[in-house]
Design goal:
It comes from Echinicola arenosa. This is TetR/AcrR family transcriptional regulator. Keywords: DNA-binding. By secondary structure, this protein is an all-alpha fold. It folds into two domains: 50 residues, Orthogonal Bundle (Arc Repressor Mutant, subunit A), CATH 1.10.10; 157 residues, Orthogonal Bundle (Tetracycline Repressor, domain 2). It has eleven helices and no strands. α2 packs across α3, α4 runs parallel beside α8 and α9 runs antiparallel to α10.
Length: 219
């Protein structure tokens, strides 16, 4: 029987920090709270991460790596670029809930923690380049109309705004009806539909039908 890989103390700290931050907000949780929940001394935790920014920076590096892998995963099994994009959006919705404290407080994180802010800005530029490549594949595959460059750049920027602030708008605009599972993904597809070619519309319908059950299961 294969042994389970032992989780390091550093990773246990991060996992517990994420749980507590999600439940209470990062600014309401100290390293002593985390240490107490883990049953370790504050000195032990401090040895690995000596302040809140060190913990947040480690969490954000983990977040960045996780999503970078998802942006880069385009399978070679015949899936279209729309399939890849749809899987990416579904992962983004799950990802946002996994790290919801960060997504809800991204502006405060950026203002309060210089090292986190620096990496966040680098990541934003990386995602901008990656999204541009995704759109170029849409056009080259004949799924989106070859519109003016500025129109597609503006569309990509709008999508980035939605992704970045989706959870925040749910908190600020609770009276609106679009809070069901998968709504962020649906909103983004709705933005793309007017730009789709006939081939793109057919591929879009095929993609939605193919992954409809998975979309409903987003937590």
């Amino acid at each position: 029987m294969e042994k389970k890989k032992k989780i390091s103390t550093k990773q246990r700290i991060l996992n517990e920090a994420i749980r507590l931050y999600n439940e209470n907000g990062a600014h309401n949780i100290t390293s002593r709270h985390i240490a107490a929940e883990l049953g370790i001394s504050h000195g032990n935790l401090d040895y690995h991460y000596n302040n809140r920014e060190a913990i947040l920076l480690a969490i954000y590096k983990q977040m960045r790596e996780e999503m970078t892998n998802s942006y880069q995963e385009k399978s070679n099994n015949g899936n279209s670029s729309f399939d890849h994009f749809h899987l990416l959006l579904m992962h983004l919705e799950r990802f946002q809930m996994k790290y919801r404290f960060f997504n809800l407080d991204v502006l405060e994180m950026s203002r309060s923690y210089p090292e986190v802010s620096k990496l966040l800005k680098e990541t934003i530029e990386l995602r901008k380049e990656q999204m541009s490549k995704v759109f170029k594949s849409f056009v080259s595959d004949g799924l989106l109309e070859d519109k003016s460059n500025i129109a597609l750049i503006r569309l990509q920027h709008t999508i980035r705004i939605i992704i970045t602030f989706w959870l925040s708008q749910r908190e600020v605009l609770p009276g609106y009806r679009f809070n069901e599972k998968g709504e962020m993904t649906k909103h983004i597809w709705d933005l793309l539909i007017p730009y789709m070619t006939e081939k793109g519309l057919e591929e879009y319908k095929h993609t939605i039908e193919k992954y409809s059950e998975e979309l409903e299961e987003i937590e």
